[in-house]
Write a structure and sequence with these properties.
single chain, alpha+beta, 5-stranded antiparallel sheet, 4-stranded antiparallel sheet, disordered N terminus, protein biosynthesis, translation initiation factor activity, initiation factor, RRM_dom
Length: 746
């Protein structure tokens, strides 16, 4: 057991009265002496307490215990509160917990926590105070801190102001060992902004709103930004493998498959509490770790052996839309929801859900009909256990109220798909027959904004859905289905692409979802919607036999078929392209351009990228050896209201004329620039030739050679000088046939 506070004070008595030279007590000291790191690491120091008298102390201690016991086990006897000569407390106390882990949890969870409206607690380890405050570490005389002169920082969103005035987007390319950031110039060569060799060791990643560019190294993660691309933050997580940002760029999660090992001499950012952990959650603003977590053990199966997960769960920590909560799945048992910024477990307990397989937060704060206070939502699903059916549920946080649940039967698997604004949730349910030999898919669509959250079932799909995607900011979706079993095959199976949209309804209501069209016998396996909606690319990726790119418009302005009159879409195939070996497809944030690339991480054949416009016309193709990665720079959400955006769409034709005129002027000015450059090069050539001719003439004069040797040779050839000095004229007779006639004689 750890020493009591009385023992602690006795150990600090002055030992000058003992003469250890006369008696050898080294063996006793080694056996009984309490080591600082082993004996005092159960103690914490609580600062920021109110000033009380001896009579008020019991009341304060009882009030304090309620908060202290939320993270561990302690008691009144384990709290020592020093008093001054004036008879009042000194506003701090020593607290002993039952284990070092509880003391560490108190520091992590109670530091900066409010005791009441006027007092905020500061919690530190006793060993830390001794380590940093011992004699020699603190000057006896007060030295005022040095205030550095103000230095204006670069605007981290300066990329939103394109110097050309054309509203171009940026992208990053990782090829070979070099990482570069460029402006998109459509058909022309991209304009380089910065190019650095060995900028990253594994990959690069943009933050969700494009503020930071992340580089990943063996020592940790670095964030870069601003006009000069300086390093903004460094997060020293050794051997980091993956990173994930919170939606509003307030926090960062890093993961390494190697547990953290804190050396004896310490770590610049992590503490001994982080030793053995795999995940670290960081505060981006301060650059400090908030909390770390170890890798979870795989839950045991029915036979008692650990089941191998089908896929590594990433992100392991999922964020609410407002960055106030982050949650982690405890496979098969519960969901742990943590509050930010202190990372304490919400209500000090997990959300118990037997058998839970997956969950996902709503990507936006949803305004539900009939609800006054809008909370964050997440959905979850649990499989069939015994006679209990599978279940899909919607839970509101922080109240932990289940606002809607749905029971399902004969379920093989389920996938959760939120619409970008949280207006709809589609649960793709793969159902098996009683014999479990055949499988089909149904779509359970939750209408989140409507009162009571009604669920609409789309059960017209007879095949297995292998891909599903909502239209961003819209209410249409695309599916890809196959009749053959899903899995690795030598030849990818044929697929069908189906489009769905709501029926027309009165007012602002959204009608029932109806099937629009199905395209059979395709090889497509991926769906990429424009971030602005309306346009979609249906592609074939990671396929050695096919690499089709189909560009569709769901609001085609041409004539609408009679069968689609009551539907809210008019489908039209705009173009078809082919990019051999394509591995990835990504729209730019404006929805004007699509980039496709073949990554050397996947194969070594014809690596490089293509750029298309939204209609599918290829603008640029560039093969690049060892091309690895392309990523468009995201943009933050628009500051315009919905009414202002609606007004812009209404007057889009007027804006289009201005843009078309600017494009024509830019192209013509580019042509003029090319002509001027060619004239300049020709003038340089003439000047150089004139200088060389002068130098040659001088050299020939020095050597006594004729200034023009060609002219001298011609004279010698055409005119020979007679012996008496007279010129000799030579006449030559030239015979020329003027006309020739052929006559045949019998």
């Amino acid at each position: 057991m750890a020493p009591s506070y009385e023992t602690l004070r006795d150990e600090n008595l002055d030992e000058e009265d003992f003469d250890y030279d006369e008696v050898d007590v080294s063996d006793l000291k080694e056996k009984y002496e309490v080591q600082l790191e082993q004996g005092y690491d159960t103690f914490v120091v609580i600062d920021g307490l109110p000033e009380v008298t001896e009579e008020q102390k019991p009341k304060l201690v009882k009030f304090l215990l309620k908060k202290l016991n939320t993270v561990g086990k302690t008691s009144e006897d384990a709290i020592f509160m020093p008093f001054g000569d004036h008879g009042k407390s000194l506003r701090f106390a020593f607290v002993e917990y039952s284990s070092p882990a509880e003391a560490a949890a108190a520091v992590r969870q109670l530091d900066y926590s409010p005791l009441d409206k006027k007092h905020t607690l500061r919690v530190n380890k006793l060993t830390d105070i001794d380590r940093y405050g011992r004699e020699g570490r603190i000057d006896e005389e007060y030295t005022p801190p040095t205030i550095e002169p103000f230095q204006e920082k670069e605007h981290l969103r300066s990329f939103m102001a394109d110097p050309s005035g054309r509203g171009r987007d940026q992208f990053v390319m990782y090829r070979g060992d070099t990482v570069g950031v460029f402006w998109n110039n459509e058909k022309d060569q991209p304009e380089n902004i910065v190019d650095r060799p060995h900028w990253t060791e594994t990959f690069v990643q943009w933050s969700p709103m494009g503020t930071y560019l992340t580089s990943v190294h063996q020592q940790g993660v670095q964030l870069w930004g601003g006009a000069s691309w300086t390093r903004i933050r460094r997060f020293a997580h050794p051997f980091v493998n993956l990173v994930a940002f919170s939606p509003n760029e307030n926090y960062l999660v890093t993961w390494s498959n190697r547990p953290i090992s804190i050396p004896d001499e310490g770590h610049p950012q992590l503490s001994i509490d982080d030793d053995g952990k795999n995940y670290v959650i960081w505060d981006i603003e301060t650059g400090k770790p908030i909390r770390s977590f170890a890798q979870q053990d795989t839950p045991a199966g029915p036979d008692g052996e650990a089941k191998k997960p089908a896929k590594f769960p990433w992100p392991a920590f999922k964020w609410s839309a407002d960055d106030k909560y982050v949650a982690r799945l405890n496979q098969g048992t519960s969901i742990s929801v943590y509050e930010l910024p202190r990372m304490n477990l919400l209500d000090k307990t997990t959300v118990k859900l037997d058998g839970v397989v997956d969950f996902d937060w709503a990507p936006a704060t949803v305004k539900r009909e009939g609800v006054k206070e809008y909370e964050q939502l997440f959905c979850f699903w649990t499989p069939e256990i015994g006679s209990n059916p599978a279940r899909v549920g919607l839970m509101s946080i922080p109240s932990k109220q289940v606002v809607r649940s749905l029971n399902l039967f004969s379920v093989s698997d389920a996938k959760l798909h939120w619409q970008s604004e949280g207006a709809y949730l589609c649960v793709k349910v793969d159902r098996h027959s009683k014999s479990k030999k055949s499988q089909a898919t149904t779509l359970e669509i939750f209408r989140i904004k409507e009162k009571g959250v009604p669920v609409e079932v789309v059960d017209t799909i007879k095949d297995t859905v292998i891909n599903f995607a909502w239209e961003p900011k819209g209410d249409r979706f695309v599916t890809i289905t196959t009749t053959e079993p899903v899995g690795a095959t030598a030849v990818p199976p044929k697929t069908s692409v189906a489009f769905f949209c709501p029926e027309k309804a009165k007012g602002n209501a959204v009608g029932n979802f109806k099937h629009l069209r199905t395209l059979e016998k395709k090889n497509s396996n991926a769906i990429y919607w424009s971030p602005k909606g309306r346009f979609v690319v249906v592609a074939t990726v990671h396929n050695t036999q096919s690499s089709d790119l189909d560009f569709y418009d769901l609001d085609f302005e041409g004539e609408k078929p009679e069968s689609d009159k009551d539907l809210t879409a008019n489908l039209q195939l705009m173009n078809t392209a082919d990019h051999y070996g394509v591995t990835d497809v990504e729209w730019d944030p404006s929805g004007r351009y699509v980039a496709t690339w073949a990554s050397a991480w996947k194969h070594a054949m014809e690596n490089g990228y293509h750029i298309y416009d939204f209609r599918g016309e290829q603008l640029r193709e560039e093969p690049i050896e060892k091309f690895k990665q392309w990523a468009w720079r995201p943009r933050p959400a628009t500051l315009l209201s919905k009414e202002e955006q609606k007004q812009i769409r209404k007057n889009l034709r007027e804006y289009s004329r201005i843009f078309e005129q600017e494009d024509a002027e830019r192209i013509s000015s580019a042509d003029v620039a090319v002509v001027q450059e060619r004239r300049r090069l020709l003038e340089d050539w003439y000047n150089w030739r004139e200088v060389v001719e002068e130098e040659v003439a001088e050299e020939r004069a020095e050597l006594g050679l004729p200034a023009d040797p060609v002219e001298e040779l011609l004279k010698a050839k055409t005119a020979e000088v007679a012996p008496n000095g007279e010129e000799q004229v030579i006449e030559e007779i030239m015979e020329e046939v003027l006309e020739e006639t052929e006559e045949i004689v019998n």
